[in-house]
Amino acid sequence: MSISPARVPDGFRRLTEASGFAAANGPWFEKIEDGRAIRGFLPGPQHANALGIVHGGMLAAFLDSAMGTAVWHTLKRRAVTLRLSIDYLGPGRIGDWLQAEGEVVGHDEHVVQVRGRLYGRRHDVLAGLGVFSLLSRHRQL
Amino acid sequence: MLEAPLIEDCAPAGFLKIDFAHGRPEPTFNSHIGNLYVKRGDKGTRDEFVMGFRVHQHMCNPAGGLHGGMMMTVADLVGAMGGGTLAGLRKFLPTVNMTFDFVAPAKVGDWVEGRAELVRATRSLLFTNIYLTVGEDKILRASSICKIPSGDGLAFGKAKLVREDAKP
Hints:
heterodimer, A: Thiol Ester Dehydrase, Chain A, seven-stranded antiparallel β-sheet, 2 helices, 38% strand, B: alpha+beta, Thiol Ester Dehydrase, Chain A, eight-stranded antiparallel β-sheet, 8 strands
């Protein structure tokens, strides 16, 4: 699906390094604001469920990516998800810009706790709490 | 947008492809992510409802493993469709909460199966546990709470099973 640039808010950069699942379900965008990484995407028909709103699995995947990015921006360490708990608060609508961000709330050498939020222009869509496992500083993905 | 699949699904015997796009002008997320299959077994058995899919490159993360987003999507569907089936509900069940534990990775070519365990159904809520497995190995543990809409709610989507795909 082509995205008209006018519908992507100012300051967002298209993530071009995506591959596999993220590329097939993108494009995804990111901006850094006050040291926080914020991710955004514009849901299309390919993201819809049987009700015509954004599929819960797509929302979960997108929030997970934003929370993982928050770990990278805060700790400069790569991490993989160990556990993610998500509350579905409201629907995401097709054609309405959505964004997500994470906040590191605690960590030790091995695991990091992250709070996440996915929201539209006027309402919250998901609240998340995740535990991520930090990868070795030397490990290549 | 999706790369041509390099491998065939080769679903094991008994699995039928789910046609989520049936009667719809455009493919939705459930068909966009790749082919999903269902096998139905005898009532009350472990295999009463099994969802399955073959892992392709377009379902993977940059490290080459099955993407967590794909696991979560399928677990969500197993919780709502599988849990709903076990509870005898034929309605669309909106998800209220899901918790996922990423126990092990999966790789391209693996056949992944998802099963739900009905924990409890109240008048308005459905609690299920879900496991995704590759062979005997668990790769994802999830727990789900779905809302059961009052009245008839919305029909169970328009998905239907593609009988022609049935292997002898």
